[in-house]
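Here is one chain, start to finish.
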Amino acid sequence: MKSTKLFQITEEDKAHYRDLIDKVDVANMNSIINILGIKIQTILDEGSINAVEAELIEDMAHLVKILELHTDLPELVIKKVLFAMSYFIDENDEIPDIIPDYGYLDDVTVVSWVMNDIQDHIPDIPDA
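Its structure:
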């Protein structure tokens, strides 16, 4: 299920996110990935995962794999990946994550936008 149709990113949003992407510090990559792991574990510990959460966890795993396998990516691509992770980690983004059934709709949309944006810069990744 692709949930991106339930929340749309405007051109104004994209411009704002691009500004935030420019400010991402790639030196924080390991910290972001560590916090990401904690966030995912927290979701898993809650027990019941909805389709949007499952999609986000799968997307995050894919993004981590991209960073691990392709250490020579352009800095802008790395910043975009880290931004997507950071957006997911932020519990008080456009739609606070605590809102049942809706809290992750913005996250899945932003992550999908980033993944679509970087796809031409990422070599194919073999399935695990």
